[in-house]
Amino acid sequence: MTVCEPMRKMCTVRTETLPVDDPLPLPISMTAPNGTQITRETIGDKTVENLQVKGSHEIVVTPQLGEKEPTVKELWYSPLLGLNVEVRRFMPRGGAQDIAMQSINRTEPDPRLFQVPETFGITRMVR
Which residue from 56, 25, 54, 53 is spatially nearest to 40, judged by alpha carbons? Predict the structure, then answer.
């Protein structure tokens, strides 16, 4: 992973091994210390942008905020990409938010996009 600070013209390169497996499963239900209740349920599989994705609902009730109705998130997760490709959020006060990846291209990007500029210094960190 490379993190650059353009104002300082400095980049830090970290060598890390990241897991490629599915994330650890979250508990089906839990209650946070502030009383927020979170429930998760599986809603099946579908195909998005030629990717197999797994669907789930995350239902959140926050009584401390006076909310009796839940906020519901519909998440469509791609194990191949390791991220949600669609997220839909429905809020108790009538709000909704949809986020979806489009035109997913799984080919390798041009390596020049990831090169550190020649005028930048580099610090390497090893873990």
Answer: 56
Q: Considering the domain boundaries, does residue 63 fall inside one?
A: yes
pTM over 0.70: no
Edge-to-edge strand ranges of the sheet holding 2-5: 2-5, 10-15, 121-126
Residue 50 corresponds to which tokens in the numbers above? 């030629």
3-state secondary structure 24-70: CCCCCEEECCCCCEEEEEEEEEEEECCEEEEEEEEEEECHHHCCCCC
**How large is the average pLDDT for residues 27-39?**
87
Nearest to 90 by CA among 58, 42, 47, 43: 58
- Top-ranked range on mean pLDDT: pick from 26-30, 58-62, 83-87: 83-87
Q: Which domain, by its residues, includes 32?
A: 21-103
Amino acid at 4: C
DSSP state of 78: E
Total domain count for the chain?
Answer: 1
